[in-house]
User: What shape does this take?
Amino acid sequence: MCEDFFPQLKRIVYRMAYEPLYLEYLVYFNRDRDYFECHEVLEELWLARKRDPLYKALLQVAVGLYHFRNLNVRGAAIMLSGASAKLEEYPATTLGINLAKLVEEVKDYVRRLASYEERPFSYYDLTIEIIDPSLADQVETTSVGITPNNPQRRGPQRPTSFQRK
Assistant: This one.
């Protein structure tokens, strides 16, 4: 009986269901490089998950890149430093991504930002490497429903119903 059961197990494909807001975060981060939207969607998930420090650290990576792209070197250094310190506490592969690689890239950014005045450098994007094929499929499916913001938002916006008096 056991021999008959195990071959069937080999055919079962494990597919983890990732949080929709996490999927959106990855689309905004990797495809659109829209770090403001990354902040918006992941903050919502972070709050829903009782301020999970992992989501906060991923959020801080996006915020740090947003700051540096907008020439706020100090803000970038603070956010990216906090993010790397927290993220390195997690396994190398977490939430279907190569977290170890992201941590090393963020640490490199922090090192470079620390000497920015002496050795300035141009802003560059990071890409979160997706390891789980199921996550890659879900991100691809999610991306179809997300239209890139063009131009990207640079900060919170008032609702369209808001009128100046």
Remarks:
- Confidence is low (pLDDT under 50) at residues 8-13, 158-165.
